[in-house]
């Protein structure tokens, strides 16, 4: 296979690789559980639909989105056989600066864990102004970002395996 990109438009919607040979962790925040539960169901269904074996999916809850980084770090530290971790959460803007601190921390934290272990750690966290925007992205009119997170995880694991 050539390693040269021809035209980026050729690569914008590449097919999803088969996930049968890979193991995935899913860490889900309990805050805004109605939303994160929908993200989780979407991610799980998408992994299974793309060949990932049920016994190769390891799912764990954490209290809030802030804990997603710690959860991913602990999981990859204890389970070196896991190929990628999908972090799912929903942070909804409130009256205080809490939103900004949590969003910044989890985005940076997820990035850092991925770099530390050289494995895909996927940012499947909704950061919305209100509940309606979150519902729209958790199975509503803008799709389910849990599905997208799962597809990203499979693509990145396959990228890592074949580079
Ligand atoms: C405290 C808090 C607040 C106010 N809002 C959210 C939120 O919208 N989404 C979310 O996932 N978590 C929230 N949390 C909890 C924090 O993520 C975290 O669990 C606590 O600050 C304890 O570290």
UniProtKB/TrEMBL annotation:
Documented EC number(s): 2.5.1.78
Binding locations of 5-amino-6-(D-ribitylamino)uracil: 31, 65-67, 90-92, 123
UniProt GO MF annotations: 6,7-dimethyl-8-ribityllumazine synthase activity
SUPFAM superfamilies: Lumazine synthase
Taxonomic lineage from the root: Bacteria, Pseudomonadati, Bacteroidota, Sphingobacteriia, Sphingobacteriales
Binding sites annotated in the UniProt record for (2S)-2-hydroxy-3-oxobutyl phosphate: 95-96, 137
Annotated function: Catalyzes the formation of 6,7-dimethyl-8-ribityllumazine by condensation of 5-amino-6-(D-ribitylamino)uracil with 3,4-dihydroxy-2-butanone 4-phosphate. This is the penultimate step in the biosynthesis of riboflavin.
Source species: Pedobacter fastidiosus
Protein keywords: Riboflavin biosynthesis, Transferase
Catalytic residues identified in the record: 98 (proton donor)
Reactions mediated catalytically: (2S)-2-hydroxy-3-oxobutyl phosphate + 5-amino-6-(D-ribitylamino)uracil = 6,7-dimethyl-8-(1-D-ribityl)lumazine + phosphate + 2 H2O + H(+)
HAMAP family referenced in this protein's UniProt entry, alphabetically: Lumazine_synth
Name recorded for this polypeptide: 6,7-dimethyl-8-ribityllumazine synthase
Pathway: Cofactor biosynthesis; riboflavin biosynthesis; riboflavin from 2-hydroxy-3-oxobutyl phosphate and 5-amino-6-(D-ribitylamino)uracil: step 1/2
Enzyme class: transferase
Family: Belongs to the DMRL synthase family.
